[in-house]
Design goal:
The complex is a heterodimer. Chain A is mainly α. In chain A, 58% of the residues lie in helices and 0% in strands. Chain A folds into two domains: 6-97, Orthogonal Bundle (Fumarate Reductase Iron-sulfur Protein, Chain B, domain 2), CATH 1.10.1060; 106-195, no CATH class. The longest helix of chain A has 21 residues, at 175-195. Chain B contains 13 helices and eight strands. In chain B, the strands form two sheets. Chain B has a four-stranded parallel beta sheet. The radius of gyration of chain B is 19 Å and the shape is globular. The chains are: A mainly alpha, B alpha/beta. The interface between A and B is large, with 69 and 67 residues.
Chain lengths: 196, 294
């Protein structure tokens, strides 16, 4: 049986930092260093070998990359100094651009639909709006329930002036330029990928 | 008077979750004669998780816009962040701009859309680096008027001031700078095996149950080693360890009630600052063990 390297070549070219996967020697230190190791199905080491084995759908539809907390332990410990955290972020982002991720994957939903939209809306994080959007993403009933669970914490934050009672905030002054800059950066990212 | 360009970041804004960090750091600066010149009209650094919604180039463009504004307003003065995630995002962006010409070209084309450009040369530093490298341990110790003698503190370094760049040459597995800060205030740094474990970070919002287990282990380790308070340099660590204690107690059958502070709050108190100067009135879990020094 011949190896099918088409998916590996696609990842090396199009997924951020994906070309470093070539350097992985399959030692598994990343797996043992990950704080979410009890929960994923495939470790970074296994994902990298699946890329090499051409298991495109299994990799891109996987929830595993989305469990990265960005703790950078795998980077710090990798004996070959591979930027594992960034390779994993790259695979998650590539899966997102290919429309392969389960839309209900909780961290994908938070990162893409809540966090990024929140910062792009004004140029800065609006913590109160971010929390509201997060709590109410599954509807009003679920939102109220989640809000009640966190009621004491929220009141504590309000009392200590660490939560703005008004969820709306103004845009940064240079907002129009900021938006144009992000649009251009997104356009150039695609070009950089194709050139790599 | 030492001056730096300053990137406070979103959680350090007025009425935001790390207002206690910002207020206590500003008190430290008043005592040390440091002036932090805030970048006018800065934007969010997009943290680490910005990769997912935006992609890497837009994520880096966000830090680059702050660099461009800093350069325009303050020249090439060192750019200081107090938040671990902001510092990390800035350091990563700065390194790639320095080493990858195609990234620098693309970023500047994007900045051009906002009428800005950035040609490099600004050093991005964390506030703890400024304290250790520019102010120095001797000065930090010499300011102490009210030593926090007998106070047992767990120094929780967490992830993003430690990995992948590190602070002042400390090791990744056992960084010592936070313990040395504790000792500099006259307090005792307890042994703390979980000092570099991950609290779950932003996954506390999306994978709350899994993250609460991580946070619980960190809190347990601090309590088991006799700590009366935990200190940290990171706003996300502080939030996760403090604000989720109630939920962890309810769901995981624990009984934690341990204050989680910033290193700056200890320094300000030890240097004779008031409870308000140290922003100790802004703790959700009240800082009762520090009352005896106030």
């Amino acid at each position: 049986m011949a190896y099918d390297l088409s998916f590996a070549k696609e990842v090396y070219k199009k997924s951020e930092m994906g070309h470093w996967i070539k350097m992985c020697m399959q030692c598994g230190v990343c797996a043992g260093s990950c704080p979410l190791r009890a929960h994923w199905q495939h470790s970074p080491r296994q994902l990298f070998q699946m890329v090499r084995a051409g298991k495109k759908d299994e990799v891109l539809k996987s929830s595993d990359m989305w469990m990265c907390t960005s703790c950078y332990n795998c980077i710090a410990r990798c004996p070959r100094n591979l930027p594992i955290t960034h390779i994993i972020h790259g695979l998650a982002r590539y899966a997102e651009t290919q429309g392969k991720v389960d839309p209900k994957q909780p961290t994908r939903r938070f990162a893409v639909e809540v966090f990024w939209e929140n910062i792009v809306a004004t140029g800065r994080v609006g913590e109160a709006m971010l929390t509201m959007r997060l709590y109410f993403q599954d509807g009003i009933g679920a939102g109220i329930q989640r809000g009640l669970e966190m009621k004491d914490s929220a009141l504590g934050m309000l009392k200590t002036r660490r939560l703005n009672p008004i969820p709306f905030r103004g845009k940064i002054k240079g907002y129009d330029g900021f938006k144009k800059m992000l649009a251009k950066a997104a356009e150039l990212e695609v070009k950089l990928e194709n050139k790599a | 008077m030492k001056e730096y360009t300053f990137f406070p970041g979103c959680s350090s804004e007025h009425n935001a979750s790390a207002a206690n960090m910002e207020n206590s750091i500003q008190s430290m600066c008043r005592i040390l004669g440091i002036k932090l010149n805030e970048i006018d009209d800065w934007n969010c650094c997009s943290a680490s998780i910005g990769y997912a919604g935006g992609g890497q180039l837009p994520r880096m463009a966000m830090s680059a816009r702050n660099f461009a504004l800093a350069q325009k307003q303050r020249g090439n003065a060192d750019l200081v962040a107090t938040c671990a995630a902001c510092w990390l995002a800035m350091r990563e962006t700065n390194e790639r701009l320095e080493h990858e010409a195609d990234v620098k070209g693309a970023i500047n084309t994007a900045l051009g859309e906002a009428g800005l450009s950035y040609d490099g040369h600004i050093r991005t530093r964390h506030f703890v680096e400024v304290l250790i490298e520019d102010i120095g341990w001797e000065t930090l110790k010499s300011k102490v008027t009210k030593p926090l003698k007998g106070l047992k503190v767990a120094g929780y370094v967490g992830c993003q001031t430690n990995r992948p760049f590190g602070v002042c040459g400390d090791s990744f597995e056992n960084p010592l700078y936070l313990d040395r800060m504790i000792e500099a205030t006259g307090a005792t740094a307890v042994p703390f095996p979980m000092k570099v474990a991950c609290c779950g970070g932003a996954l506390m919002f999306s994978e709350t149950e899994k993250s609460c287990v991580l946070t619980k282990q960190i809190l347990q380790s601090a309590v088991d080693n006799g700590a009366e308070v935990i200190i940290t340099p990171c706003p996300v660590c502080q939030l996760n360890l403090e604000v989720y204690q109630g939920m962890i107690n309810k769901n995981l059958g624990t009984n934690f009630n341990i204050p989680v502070l910033y290193y700056a709050q200890l320094f300000v108190l030890a240097w004779g600052g008031s409870w308000q100067d140290a922003a100790l009135h802004q703790q959700v879990v009240a800082a009762e063990p520090l009352r005896r020094f106030a």
